[in-house]
């Protein structure tokens, strides 16, 4: 899955456009909820060596929030790395160089979106104080 394919998927699935919050950086973008402004993804271009890989060149990546239960199994798969520049217990890096499958990427982006969305309080669960 490429950067553009993922950007298109996120727009189609969630009606979210990439946000470029860093001045002088027109590559790094975040995907955030429109209501609570929480990020559910950040896309960057970084050197493979920065990810601890013995490989020249750069790759597009996306960091997404992930269920900690899945972290260990994902990190052992091609295309997945410990989160770059994020909390490694709650975020994971996915390489957008074709090494991770499209279905797995979209399922994980969906999970990240759900994990970061505004939680509605259940009716009847309020304090009387």
Structure, described:
This protein has 129 residues and is α+β, with helices and mostly antiparallel strands. Helix content is 27%, strand content 22%. It has a single domain, classed as Aspartate Aminotransferase, domain 1 (Alpha-Beta Complex), CATH 3.90.1150. It has three helices and five strands, in the order αβββαββα. It has a five-stranded antiparallel beta sheet with strand order 1-2-3-5-4. A hairpin with an 8-residue loop joins strand 4 and strand 5. The chain is globular. The mean pLDDT is 89. This is MmcQ/YjbR family DNA-binding protein. Keywords: DNA-binding.
Layout of helices and strands:
Elements lengths: L2 H12 L14 E4 L6 E9 L10 E8 L2 H8 L4 E3 L8 E5 L6 H15 L13
CATH topology (level 3) name: Aspartate Aminotransferase, domain 1
**Morphology call:** globular
Strand order of the largest sheet: 1-2-3-5-4
Low-confidence stretches: none
Secondary-structure element order, N to C: HEEEHEEH
CATH class annotation: Alpha Beta
Topology, number of strands: 5
Output mean pLDDT.
89
* Largest sheet report: 5 strands, antiparallel
What CATH architecture would you give? Alpha-Beta Complex
- Our measurement of the CA-to-CA distance between the termini, rounded to an integer number of angstroms, reads 52 Å
Please state the CA-atom Rg, rounded to the nearest Å: 16 Å
Strand content: 15-25%
Provide the helix percentage.
Answer: 25-40%
Total helical elements: 3
């Amino acid at each position: 899955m490429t950067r553009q394919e993922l950007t298109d998927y996120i727009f189609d699935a969630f009606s979210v456009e990439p946000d470029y919050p860093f001045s002088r950086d027109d590559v790094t973008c975040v995907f955030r909820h429109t209501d609570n402004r929480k990020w559910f993804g950040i896309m960057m271009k970084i050197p493979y060596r920065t990810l601890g890989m013995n490989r020249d060149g750069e790759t597009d990546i996306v960091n997404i929030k992930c269920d900690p239960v899945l972290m260990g199994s994902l990190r052992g798969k091609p295309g997945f790395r410990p989160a770059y520049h994020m909390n490694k217990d709650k975020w994971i890096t996915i390489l957008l160089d074709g090494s991770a499958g499209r279905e797995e990427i979209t399922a994980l982006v969906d999970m990240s979106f759900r994990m970061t969305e505004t939680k509605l309080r259940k009716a009847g669960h309020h304090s009387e104080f």
